[in-house]
What we know:
elongated; two-stranded antiparallel ribbon
Amino acid sequence: MSFTDILKLIFRRIGQLIKAHQREVARQYAKLLIELRRDLAKQYEQYEKDGKLSLEEMLKHDRLRKLEQRVDHRLKVHYSDMHKQLNKALGDIYKEGYYLTAHAVETYTKVKVGYSAVTPETLQAMIENPVNGLTLKRNLERKRAAIVYDIQQQVTAGLQNNETYSTMSKRLKNTLENDAVKAMRVVRTEGHRVQESAPHDAAVYATKNGVIMAKQWNTLEDQRVRRRPKNAADHKQLNNKKIAMDKLFDDGLSKGLAPGQMGAAGSDINCRCFLTYSIERIERPQHAELENMEFEEWKKERLRR
């Protein structure tokens, strides 16, 4: 198996981790919808008239404000849990990608590069790396504030129209589904960034320690690839472009080390491009005992703590 083939297997394994997290995000939104519908149902049970709930009735005794406070609390808990889960998921994705790539480099080249365990500080810096000027936490906070406002507007509009519980419930469902789509986009974008960062960092370390590597940009070669004039960023023209590890790719809109790390929304959001790596030359002694070393054994024997 070629080194590129080995890396493709690694990318597939990491991609499965990202999809698993997307499924968990979808599950959390389904749970949130159930909770919000339960809160709304209580208001209808207590204050509806002829199956409808009016704004006038909900303004009495601060009922609407109290409902909005419950919605705000549930969304705070929801987004806090999502931030914690995303932090863990991105950390797992990074470590898996970094260690698997490091293992591939050493066992394929039979060179003792000298990889170290990923530190908590490295993980946190990578996770909170500002994307388009926003940290992950700040990005999620902005999205939470936006969905709180949207729900408040939808509930008020429904009350003004004296809507039934069924109609109001559909409003909530549509609003949350739109927010879930945005959350999944964050997962895809952040997961893709980390998926590309991990092997890139491992390849950079190898290049600095005697295994000189190069990187090549790859697209999926379909109609969704960013290209001009439709997009300011042109990833089609980057396809198969090969450069040294310390060089930057230029897509016409921004420059960066790898897909997902270009630093502009038009370059990074929903990007599906990926890097492959080649070994250009070896400048260190080789050790035959590394050739068939299994991953878990390599982690135990070769990974410096």
